[in-house]
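Progress report, Aim 2. The chain analyzed during this reporting quarter is listed below.
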Amino acid sequence: MARYVMRVRTEKSADEAFDFMADLRNFPQWDPGTKSAVQVKGDGPGNGAAYDLQASGATLRYVVQTYDRPSRVVAKAQNRWITSVDTITVTADGTGCIVAYDADLVLNGLLRFGDPILKMAFNRIGGQAADGLVESLSGTRLS
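Predicted structure tokens for the chain:
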């Protein structure tokens, strides 16, 4: 299993940060590994909304499983090779908020033996995404 967790403090309100993060069409703006994101089900963010995200030459369909505005979104993508669960948590903090992004990536089937290699690559990719998130939210990285 490869997991990457980052936290960013921003002066943006919890509502503003949540709305930006909960709309997966915004992922290419901050995650350099995501080349495109298209909503294929639903009309904007919400429970059951589905998005096709293209990354690393593959397209993963993320379905929003939990949508609790303005505090938490959980989206899951799964195909025969990989399962990805992304959890976004937004917590008000003074005049701004803290955005936590937790990405959990697992190789399926026999590919799971490649998890240690995936974990190393995912840490590098996650670091680049964290930098992009800090920039997009005009924030400061906490972890």
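DSSP finds three helices and eight strands in the chain. Strands lie at 2-10, 34-41, 50-55, 58-68, 72-78, 82-93, 96-107, 140-141. These observations will guide the mutagenesis work planned for the next reporting period.
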